[in-house]
Write a structure and sequence with these properties.
CATH superfamily of the largest domain: ANL, N-terminal domain
CATH architecture of the largest domain: 3-Layer(aba) Sandwich
Shape: globular
Number of helices: 18
CATH topology of the largest domain: Rossmann fold
Strand content: 15-25%
Strand order of the largest sheet: 17-16-18-20-21-27
Helix content: 25-40%
Radius of gyration: 23 Å
Largest sheet: 6 strands, mixed
Number of strands: 27
């Protein structure tokens, strides 16, 4: 891709690209991710880095903890190229583990904390991670998987929330049963805190890292066949996207003075880059929340956190913006400190955007990205009058996005025509982990990553998403692939066949619905089928609605028409959804 080509693209020539925002940036090829934290600790040692249940850690202390933990990891034999699993909620230990693994040149494999046995087993085996860092709440699950020989694990490192929260919060948490009691760690396993305490910050060796070639992260994303794929993200991919993200804000970020709320899970690339790394890159505060929905009424803890700590940035998914707007006491809280909000992972309703802006005074814009793009590729401008409701905005700096024929990924379509969005840029991944064919399938002959999302470009260069190429469900930004749920439900002895689709939900965006055909002479209730799924897949994947049907609709060749079922439900809700399968 030549820069002069980019300058001729419609989002530049349309005349609406903000003059204040650079089109092209420099992306260092000798900058590993951990250097963001190392520089912040050197230049702003006494700035607060993390706030977690009122306990605060300064940047110089955070960096020392990282080095101590890295030294203890190397004593366990961890070295460059090893894959290390992080199975933690948002907490300081996640941040420490992330940068310590990164500092050793090893590869981080984040696991969704909602995963149950088989999901965790698959990704551990697929990634080859033989060390896992978990919280004591999930310790029994991890130990059981190892002891049953489901997975081969050399090390289980166990962290506890007790170690990183304030004494008063710990006492209240135990008293109210909100904080589980600390679990005993078996002799063969290792305490996270002990590793931090016993590590020598001066003993960590200098590791030669090639940011372009070396993997920083294997981030799992769903596959259209229902099988998770590990996305290979290099240091260069993630650092480049962080530089691109820093460039989008207007007015610009103020070094050392911002405050980010990390309400979305750090095991997801969206929060990891737009919140955690953005805070570290600017030596600013990050407020870590383990569960943004917590409190009575729901989201009460998040609301009180926003009020107490006066953040300047609150990046979230539409479900959180909607939830806050519906909170019964929302007007009693001053949230005017929030300067900017980025919404992603699901479409942002226009009315929600305007209502949240009216409530806070913040500039709320919608963006777009994928795990494979580290994650951001498009954002509506933060400049006055720059955004367009319903649009995902323009491609960010040095990102080329085009529309390709959905049946011929090498055929570019003219402006205004609807097709598959393809992107190219420094943030785009190189390959899926150990899946060469799947990798080849998503890149066209010119090297554009074909996203699977259907959209178009309007006359002024704004991009719009109109649907998905594949049958996928988006629950509050978390992806659900129907085949995975269908295969589980089919294990129920009364089920003849099943089709799973996404249906509208006013807060989550979508929820999972199952159309079920029973075997002759068999009976089952909707509640029974939902109960059957519990504990066997993550909660957000469990159907919230079950409808019984005599026979599933099929094409002339016998393929189940998910589209017909989904279109029927979206039509009932007065909405439109476009998919091809």
């Amino acid at each position: 891709m030549v820069i002069s080509e980019l300058d001729n693209r419609p989002w530049f020539t349309g005349g609406l690209w903000p003059e204040e925002i650079a089109k092209h940036l420099d992306y260092p090829k000798d900058f590993p991710i951990y250097q963001f934290l190392e520089e912040a600790a050197h230049e702003y040692p006494d700035n607060i880095a993390t706030i977690f249940f009122d306990a605060k850690i300064k940047y110089k202390v955070l960096w020392e903890k990282v080095l101590r933990f890295a030294d203890s990891l190397q004593k366990l034999g961890i070295s460059k190229g090893d894959r290390i699993g992080i199975y933690l909620p948002n907490c300081p230990q996640f941040v420490i583990a992330f940068f310590a693994i990164n500092r050793l040149g090893a590869t981080i494999v984040p696991f969704n904390t909602q995963y149950v046995d088989y999901e965790l087993t698959y990704q551990l085996k697929d990634s080859g991670a033989r060390t896992i860092i978990c919280i004591d709440i999930t310790y029994d699950r991890v130990r059981r998987l190892r002891d049953k020989s489901n997975v081969e694990l050399d090390n289980i490192i166990v962290a506890s929330l007790h170690d990183e929260i304030s004494r008063s919060k710990r006492y209240i948490g135990i008293l109210t049963a909100k904080l589980p009691l600390r679990k005993r760690i078996h002799a063969q396993d290792i305490s996270f805190q002990k590793m931090v305490d016993e590590g020598d910050p001066k003993a960590v060796p200098k590791v030669e890292i090639d940011p372009v070639k070396d993997l920083a992260l294997i981030q799992y994303t769903g596959g259209t066949t229902g099988v998770s794929k590990g996305t290979n993200l290099s240091h260069y991919n993630i650092v480049s996207n962080q530089i691109q993200l820093t460039n989008i804000y207007h007015p610009p970020l103020t070094q050392g003075e911002e405050c980010f709320v990390v309400a979305l899970p750090l095991f997801h690339i969206y929060a990891l880059n737009t919140c955690m790394l953005a805070a570290v890159n600017t030596a600013s505060k990050m407020i870590l929340l383990t569960d943004p929905l917590a409190g009575r009424p729901m989201l009460q803890d998040l609301l009180e956190t926003l009020y107490k700590y006066k953040p300047t940035f609150f990046h979230a998914v539409p479900a959180l913006y909607v939830g806050l707007l519906f909170h019964k006491d929302i007007k009693d809280y001053d949230l005017s400190s929030i300067r900017a909000c980025l919404s992603g992972a699901a479409p942002l309703p226009e009315q929600v955007m305007w209502n949240f802006e009216e409530l806070t005074g913040a500039n709320v814009v919608e963006g777009y990205g994928l795990t494979e793009t580290s994650p951001v590729t498009h954002v509506n401008p933060f400049t006055p009058g720059g955004k367009r409701s319903g649009s995902i905005g323009f491609p960010i700096a040095d990102t080329d996005a085009r529309i390709f024929d959905r049946n011929d990924g090498n055929k570019e379509l003219p402006q205004g025509e609807e097709g598959e969005i393809g992107v190219k840029g420094p943030q785009v991944f190189s390959a899926y982990w150990k899946k060469p064919q799947e990798t080849a399938d998503v890149f066209n002959e010119e090297g554009y990553f074909l996203t699977g999302d259907i959209g178009y470009i309007d006359p002024e260069g704004y991009f719009f998403i109109s649907g998905r190429k594949k049958n996928m469900i988006d629950v509050s930004g978390l992806k659900v692939y129907p085949r995975e749920v269908e295969e589980l439900i089919m294990e129920h002895p009364a089920i003849q066949e099943v089709a799973v689709v996404g249906v509208p939900h006013k807060i989550r965006g979508e929820q999972v619905m199952a159309f079920v055909a029973l075997k002759d002479d068999e009976t089952a209730s909707a509640e029974e089928i939902m109960e059957f799924c519990k504990g066997r897949i993550a909660r957000y994947k469990i159907p919230r609605k079950v409808t019984f049907i005599d026979e599933l609709p099929r094409s002339a060749i016998g393929k189940v028409l998910h589209r017909e079922l989904r279109d029927m439900m979206w039509k009932k809700a007065g909405k439109k959804r476009s998919i091809d399968s």
